[in-house]
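Quick one - first record:
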Amino acid sequence: DGLLVMDRNGDGKINDGTELFGVATQKADGSRAGNGYEAMKIEDSNQDGKLTAADARYSELKLWVDANQDGKTDDGELHGLADFGVVSLDLSALAGSEVDNGNLLGLTSSYTTADGATHDMADVWFAKDVAAAPALNELLAGAPAEVLPAALSTGAAPATSTHQASAGVVSIDRNLLPTDDKNLPLI
């Protein structure tokens, strides 16, 4: 698993939340994106609802795989989407309600690889303190309105599996995350 990022200052590192796709992403009008999918739509230059090679800045998109789970971008941890065979990211997100390791998969869609297979992708709303994972209603307190009906109707409860939603989810450097919603796309 990895986080979708864009090294906006070109220094080879992910320095802060503005280089992640989430609520710290600034839109053209100066406001901030409401979630990771809204942030990704900024890069959909041909407005077809997908991020593909047909979009102007697609080649600048990277996957950050925090191999040593230290929450910092080390050499060799930023990869081009093509390195993993990713050819398309679907921006038509649906409200999610799954909680994994205390983190809400708030919006979900899929990505497609070169072999034509589709895989799950999510806007993950990270818990502030995974050791003391909040109840679902606490996670949903700041969620967009479109998420609430789906989440509440499923009766979702925190996951009991030990699988992490992402490499580095537990130990990610909190300085990288925006201070409010803590939501980022995970593929």
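second record:
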Amino acid sequence: MRCLVFLGLLVGLVCGTGCTAVLDKLSTNYYEQNYSARISMGELDPKTRPEPSVQDVLMRHHGESVKTRARGGWEVLGSSEFNTSGSPRRNHLLKLAKKLGSELVVYSREFDRREQELVKRSEYQQGERITVNGTTVEMEGRWVDVIDVVTHTYHDYRTTFLRTGRE
């Protein structure tokens, strides 16, 4: 019965707030956690800001792309750089950009490395019945150690937040 109540609450939470809203709150916001401001300014209400434009560029062209924009009159608000095997959420990027008042985000992602680790866990193996020559023997269930290979794929992320120049 408790399980059904919990399941009902979970379904209500997901349907009431939206699946992505729940995931956004549960996952790490790498963009905000690693943000370094170039221009100090107060935070804006993200709900009142328009959706920023996100330009995907190759990592090796990121710096040049930002310099080109800066020469063209754009102001660099700040940037965020990090390396993770997690999956940064696009919603986090857009929310931070809106909060900063950014109109353009230059975004780069590049493969870094792949690592494997061995993870030991216990797994319950159910008992079984064995019949030999009419005699049935029932073996008890038991816990056995299992080793899993877990692969982590790391990527470098770099984002630069820009807005049109202010006079």
